[in-house]
Amino acid sequence: MILASQVWTQIFWTSVIAGGLLAGVPLMFTALGEAISERAGVLNIGLEGMMLAGAYCGFLGAYYGGNQWVGYLAGIGAGILASLIMVALCVWLGLDQIVVGIAITLAGEGITSVLYQARFSAEQPRLGNLDSNPIPLLDRIPVLGKAINGQTPLFDQPLIVYLGLTFAFVLAWVFRRTNVGLNLRAAGEKPEALDAAGVSVVATRSYAVLATGSLAGLGGAYLAIAGTGGFQPFLTQGQGFMAIVIAMLARGRPIRVVVFSLMFGIALSLSTVLQLAGIELAPEVVNMLPFAAVILALILFARRAYLPPALALAYVRGAR
Amino acid sequence: MTETTTTTTATGRASVAALPRRPARSLRAERILDVIIRSIVPVVLALVAGGVLLLALGRNPLTFYGNIWTGGVAAGAWQNSAIRMAPFLLIAAGLTLIFRANIWNLGYNGQFLLAAALVSGYAPGLTNHVPAWLAFALLFLLAGAAGAIWTIVPAVLKARYGTNEIITTLMMSFIGVDLASLLIKGPFHDPTTPLPQTAVIPLDKMLPPIPGTRIHIGLLIAFAAIFVVHYMLTRTSWGLRLQIVGANPRAARHFGINLPRLILTSFLASGFLVGLAATADIVGLWGYIRTGWDPAYGDTIIPFVFLARLNALAVVPFIAFFSVLSTGGDLAAQQAGLPTDVLYVLVGLILLFMTVIEYLGRRRELGQSYLPQGLRQALHLRRAVA
């Protein structure tokens, strides 16, 4: 068969992994953030807006600062600023998380598009390619480590990707083994108990939402700096919502978030990869595959996607 | 969480407020004032904040808002705004209905586009072969059915297993958008053009205008839908049950309400209305659909549904306002050299200010909110009894 001979080549698998990482890492950062706030009981529908804020400011930082790290920091800063709105309105004042989230998404979409087109619409500047940092020895492994045709797989990535993967493991450890993680989980499971234990629910949730904002901002910044090499209005194309889906499917477990993000990333990049392999498949079909798979799994296995009981409910001391 | 516990354990201020101390007229005046404050102030604040943003970008906000008036109201432009109102109103009706039950149908984009693709695909042939009125009726039914069918999976999953409908509707929406694009490229592609679009419906086969105007009769259908939804919500037992579910699902089960059936019917009705919007928009205004066209009407309509306090009739003036804003906004943004996305900023700001005003209103006990108790809790601060 023609198909088989074209698919089972090293270059095909290298590009699958490379493309999956490139598209999956922004999702991973953002979904890890959502996992934190979801576990703490705050549903962050504003993720899309926070990602876009991070993407635009990350682009600005990298463009004017001339350095990817300035960009990432700017993206994190923008994400934190956007999430401050959510902290103030949803955590402190206890307003509805879904309404405020939609507002943040709308405002984020609008303001980044307007600012970009007001300033850059004529020139549409591009950022340079990122240098990757191959890990010695590991980068000689075929498929996983060896770059082919400029496709850089797992062990030949920019430093920020390694940092992100490490962070996921750290986060898993924090959730499972530390007091901070216990507090976060309690804030989502039974905030009253956390309050009774003498820990402030509001403070716990505030930090969780700020962490979410910074990670979403970082995800957006990575998307702009490494993913597309520039900013475009509506750059994220629903990835913020995808991250929410990923965090919910992973039930807030960081390692599963990483796995699901990379799977979604591979699906997102699959149409170009398949084209390289000479297989014509409508991009729409490939795009809808991960969602269709999830829906099918939900129908077939029909188990409850577990969500913290106090999710999306504001905590008011003494309220019944 | 009943009224009685609230009044017995509430602090003095709340129980005093519950006593009929003032004459009815002053209460009524206060209530009208309350409506104005809660509905108009967020809009005004958002326009002011948007003006500051425009100033920061070096544009004159007065010119910008003046151009919105010119492009959206003045000299017959109001008819363009009215044409845009039809799909907006239908989507607003669908969202109002399901949000009342405290169920989040966030899959409106997929429902709308799928219905739009089907309508654009079948309309050119259908309008040629059957009488116009029958074709229109069939197209509205087709679109409504498509929108409704696209809600079945989230509805059944929620009804049977309690699966969170926010993720399922969003996922179905992504699938629906892609499927619509496949339909347009595939079976519905117009063979006479290389562009990925459907055959154009001839002008004389489109929805006829209301006599004396350029506005197509889709607007009348939209108004009819609004009245039907309002009637259903306020005058039928189904509407009452819907609101009980929205206020407190656990209490609803104790009342003996068939919760799964209600979830399913409200989802179907919501999807149906969103689907109707597609027919009004395609057969009334555009005449064809091209891939990549996703106006995402619902995203910008949601804030106004909330602003109307989930009241189907109160939605009308807000949607009228937004139609003017978006119609005139096109001209204003073009004149100012900005993308039309500046409207997203305004709408997002309106929503943010609305939640803040609502919060302040609750704090100052400005008066009764129109929402049922449970919905108020879902939307706003959970009432602190202590």
Name a few traits of the molecule.
heterodimer, A: 320 residues, mainly alpha, ABC transporter involved in vitamin B12 uptake, BtuC, 2 strands, B: 386 residues, 72% helix, disordered C terminus
What is the element layout, followed by pairings?
The complex is a heterodimer of chains A (320) and B (386).
Chain A: H1 2-7, H2 10-39, H3 47-65, H4 68-92, H5 97-120, E1 133-134, E2 156-157, H6 159-177, H7 179-189, H8 191-196, H9 201-228, H10 239-249, H11 254-276, H12 283-301
Antiparallel strand pairs in A: 1-2
Helix pairs in contact in A: 2-7, 2-9, 2-10, 2-11, 3-4, 3-5, 3-9, 3-10, 4-5, 4-9, 6-7, 6-11, 10-11, 11-12
Chain B: H1 3-9, H2 12-18, H3 24-56, H4 61-72, H5 77-100, H6 108-129, H7 132-149, H8 152-161, H9 165-185, H10 218-235, H11 237-247, H12 249-254, H13 259-286, H14 297-307, H15 315-336, H16 342-363, H17 373-379
Helix pairs in contact in B: 3-16, 4-15, 5-10, 5-13, 5-14, 5-15, 6-7, 6-9, 6-13, 7-13, 8-9, 8-13, 10-11, 10-13, 11-17, 14-15, 14-16
- Rg from alpha-carbon coordinates of chain B: 22 Å
Helix/strand-derived category of chain A reads mainly alpha
Order of helices and strands of chain A: HHHHHEEHHHHHHH
Got a strand count of chain B?
0
What does the radius of gyration of chain A come to?
20 Å
The greatest interface here is: A-B, 58 and 58 residues
Task: Write up this protein.
The complex is a heterodimer of chains A (320) and B (386). Chain A starts with a helix and ends in a 19-residue tail after the last helix. Chain A has twelve helices and two strands, in the order αααααββααααααα. Chain A has 320 residues and is mostly helical. Chain A has one domain (2-301): ABC transporter involved in vitamin B12 uptake, BtuC, CATH 1.10.3470. Chain A has a two-stranded antiparallel ribbon with strand order 1-2. With 386 residues, chain B is mostly helical. Chain B has a single domain (82-379), classed as ABC transporter involved in vitamin B12 uptake, BtuC. Chain B has helices at residues 3-9, 12-18, 24-56, 61-72, 77-100, 108-129, 132-149, 152-161, 165-185, 218-235, 237-247, 249-254, 259-286, 297-307, 315-336, 342-363, 373-379. In chain B, helix 5 crosses helix 15 (315-336) and helix 14 (297-307) runs parallel beside helix 16. At the A-B interface, helix 5, helix 10 and helix 12 of A face helix 8, helix 9, helix 14 and helix 16 of B.
